[in-house]
């Protein structure tokens, strides 16, 4: 019986995670962009200095090719500029242009506001429990996956 309960709980966990992701994907579609573009724009908004494609790959967990395609599209639309890094001439830093900052504020700010409002409406003890539980689950899962061949 316990085995079936664990399987059921795991399915519910996956379903909830996918439902959360689906909300973001649906929002991106309504805005006429990919969810990958939303992820990149959100990071560019919060990390305005020294953002590189390598940084975006590491922080979005998206493939390098996807990041490159998103940046190329944003560059063509005039939403980002690429400048040579002061520390490594081989690296290009990505920065939002004025048009890009305006675009991001119209697209990303409402999404962040919805997330913030949702989190703020949860009782503090539920938020704390949710975050502690997710952190503990993620660490335990990472430890077990590290042991796999």
Automatic annotation (TrEMBL):
GO MF term set: DNA binding; DNA-binding transcription factor activity
InterPro entries: HTH_MarR-typ, MarR/SlyA-like, Tscrpt_reg_MarR-type_CS, WH-like_DNA-bd_sf, WH_DNA-bd_sf
Keywords: DNA-binding, Transcription, Transcription regulation
Location of the HTH marR-type domain: 1-139
Keyword DNA repair found: no
Annotated signal peptide: none
SUPFAM superfamilies documented for this protein: Winged helix' DNA-binding domain
GO BP annotations, alphabetical order: response to stress
Record Gene3D superfamilies: Winged helix-like DNA-binding domain superfamily/Winged helix DNA-binding domain (1.10.10.10)
UniProt name for this protein: HTH marR-type domain-containing protein
Organism annotation: Lapidilactobacillus concavus DSM 17758
């Amino acid at each position: 019986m316990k085995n079936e309960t664990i399987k059921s709980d795991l399915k519910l966990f996956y379903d909830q995670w996918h439902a959360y992701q689906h909300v973001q994907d649906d929002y991106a579609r309504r805005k006429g962009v990919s969810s990958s573009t939303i992820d990149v724009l959100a990071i560019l908004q919060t990390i305005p200095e020294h953002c590189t494609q390598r940084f975006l790959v590491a922080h979005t967990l998206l493939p390098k090719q996807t990041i490159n395609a998103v940046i190329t599209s944003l560059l063509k639309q005039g939403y980002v500029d690429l400048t040579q890094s002061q520390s490594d001439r081989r690296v290009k830093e990505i920065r939002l242009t004025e048009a890009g900052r305006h675009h991001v504020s119209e697209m990303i700010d409402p999404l962040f506001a919805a997330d913030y409002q949702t989190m703020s409406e949860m009782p503090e003890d539920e938020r704390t429990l949710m975050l502690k539980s997710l952190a503990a689950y993620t660490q335990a899962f990472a430890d077990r996956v590290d042991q796999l061949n």
